[in-house]
Input
Amino acid sequence: GAGVSQSPSNKVTEKGKDVELRCDPISGHTALYWYRQSLGQGLEFLIYFQGNSAPDKSGLPSDRFSAERTGGSVSTLTIQRTQQEDSAVYLCASGKETQYFGPGTRLLVL
Amino acid sequence: AQSVTQPDIHITVSEGASLELRCNYSYGATPYLFWYVQSPGQGLQLLLKYFSGDTLVQGIKGFEAEFKRSQSSFNLRKPSVHWSDAAEYFCAVGSFFQKLVFGTGTRLLVSP
Output
C-alpha cells in the first residue's frame, strides 16, 4: 500500500516568512510523529499525535513551531517567522510499534 | 535518560567484505530497537527491528542484528557488503507509541 507522503519535497523561503509542511500518514495509522534532521543536531523528535489524545509537544524547539492533525489523518507542521537555523529536513512518520517514515521536506531559509 | 550511541561516524568496507555497525543504548524500560538506512536525499527506510524474543533478528537486504541486553547493544551485521549498501545507518530506541531516540548515524562507504 501507499507509504507516508510529505509535501512539498523542497521549500525555499526567506527569513521571517511562515511555512507549512504537510504529512499524509499511512491509512489507518493513528500515531503520527514529526522529526527534524539537521547537520548540527542529528535527528530530533518534534511532536507526536496519537488518536484523540492531546499531542506530545515536548520536542518543539520554540513557540514559533506548531502542528495540527485534522480528522486523525493529515498533519500540518507550521513554522512562523522562520529563522536560518530552521533550515533542515523535516521528517514525518506514522505507525504503532514501528514508525514508517516519509521522504521528508527539505527546508532552506535564506 | 534515553540515548543511543553509534561510535563510528564513518566506516569504509571493501565490496564483498563483512560489515558490523555498532550501537549502544540507554533506556529505562524494555527497549524496542530499530535500524534505519538513509540514502542521500531520501527518507529513512526500516531495515529491521527488535521487540522481544529471539535476540538475533533478520531484516531486509541481507542485514541482521543481535540484541545483547548485558551489553546494551544492538549491532548491525551483513556478511557480504554490496556497493549499493553505501548509505547512512541509524540506530534508534523507543517503545510502543513512544518517540524514537536516534543515534548520530554511521556513514558507510563501500570501496571497490
